Amino acid sequence: MTTIIVRHKVQDFDTWKRGYDEADGLRIEHGIVYASIHRDASDPDTVFAVHRFQDAGSAKAFLDAVPPAMEKAGVVGKPEVWMGEDLEVRNY
Q1: What is the C-alpha to C-alpha distance for residues 34 and 43, in angstroms, rounded to an integer?
Q2: How far apart are CA 5 and CA 81, in angstroms?
């Protein structure tokens, strides 16, 4: 499994959230198996999205395809992206 974490500023959280929801098909098309979104505790217009994919190729293809959806949703500036191979996941 591969996880990507994306952090970015948005113009307006509610507008961004609608755009995020509208892009659900894009995530499914690229084989997403897990997603969560988070807001920065001190800045509600800074968003973190955590997405898990079966493999790095699917995650990279998603990252290549998602910029138009991000722009449409009101992402401001260049997102920070981290991608890593999952070594261990625990649920408590």
Answers
A1: 24
A2: 6
Q: What tokens were used for 74?
A: 């009101």
How many CA atoms are closer than 13 Å to the CA of 33, on its beta-carbon side?
11
Token readout for 66 is 């998602």
Q: Structure pTM?
A: 0.90
Determine contact, residues 26/66, Cβ cutoff 8 Å: yes
Please name the residue ranges forming H helices in the chain: 13-22, 24-29, 56-65, 67-73
**In angstroms, rounded to a whole number, what is the distance separating the alpha carbons of residues 64 and 72?**
15
Q: Which residues pair with 83 in a beta bridge?
A: 4
pLDDT in tens, 49-76: 999 999 999 999 999 999 999 999 999 9
| Residues in CB range of 67: below 8 A, 6 or more apart | none
Q: Which structure tokens are listed for 69?
A: 């959806």
